[in-house]
Design a protein that fits this description.
Protein name: Riboflavin biosynthesis protein
CATH superfamily of the largest domain: HUPs
Keywords: ATP-binding, FAD, Flavoprotein, FMN, Kinase, Multifunctional enzyme, Nucleotide-binding, Nucleotidyltransferase, Transferase
Pathway: Cofactor biosynthesis; FMN biosynthesis; FMN from riboflavin (ATP route): step 1/1; Cofactor biosynthesis; FAD biosynthesis; FAD from FMN: step 1/1
Domain Riboflavin kinase: 183-310
CATH class of the largest domain: Alpha Beta
Largest sheet: 6 strands, parallel
Number of domains: 2
Oligomer: single chain
EC number: 2.7.1.26, 2.7.7.2
CATH architecture of the largest domain: 3-Layer(aba) Sandwich
Radius of gyration: 22 Å
Distance between the termini: 28 Å
Strand content: 25-35%
Helix content: 25-40%
Length: 315
Amino acid sequence: MKIQHIEYPEIPETGGWEYSMAAGFFDGIHRGHQEVIGHAMDVAREKGLLPAVMTFDPHPSAVLGSRKEVTYITPYKQKMQLLEEMGADTVFVIHFTKEFASVTPEQFIECYIRKLGVRHITCGYDFSFGRFGKGKPDDLERLSGGGYGVSVIGKVTEEDDKISSTRIRSMLSEGDVSGAAHLLGRPLMTDGTVIEGDKRGRLIGFPTANVDPVPGSCLPAPGVYAATFEADGTLHDGVLNAGYRPTFKDPSDTFLSVEVHLLDFDGNLYGKDVRVRWIRRIREERKFAGIDELKAQITRDKEEAFRILSAHPDS
């Protein structure tokens, strides 16, 4: 897959290729996004076009100031991997800046549809583009002049409610990773690197891999989770603690830790790039009166994680 980074006002040379393109930010690549992207891939096959995706980096709210802190359900590298798995030949990544945000809908269409060789564009019903988001899907068709086709994918729902990144974030904030997985079409995945921790888990008989998530990762609420852990292409079952370890840590420490005790592995993972898949929440994080009480609870957590993962198709 080719990734073309675009800095406004440049227009990349496409070599005369013609594309069926899906357009959107696509954070999460959830089931609604999959409908949009999948349709663009289908049109590409039907019309003999190259399948492409247009997305933006960073999130517009990081530039326009509507969010204090921006996190991503699918950080950049993971999003590119998922798009490749879906069949994209080319991904156009527009660097979202205040200058780019000022283009008119007409300029956007001229520069980033016509001149890119897009012969068919697919978007969601709520896609917007151009200054102040004034461009809407109807404008894509109205301004096409017959130069490209347009497909607009309607609302994709679950239990009569729209599947959206906002809904998934809300579920994650409550620790409902299994509900989020249903909307994503796969478990939430967190990529990161194993770093050295304080080794307290090893001292009490439950060694953990401390994962430093890639910057900007959207993490679920603190708690204990059944999870899988991928390292060097091998998948391991585990019980994960996300939180502030109140039994041990200074209450003023606000760094959220992600630690995974592997149920079927004992070895050195320091420095490894890994992927955690969050399967189901077991319980909230809480403070224990002492080490013995904590160890007893971890043993119960391990048993519950084993039960959950034994019945889960992704483990």
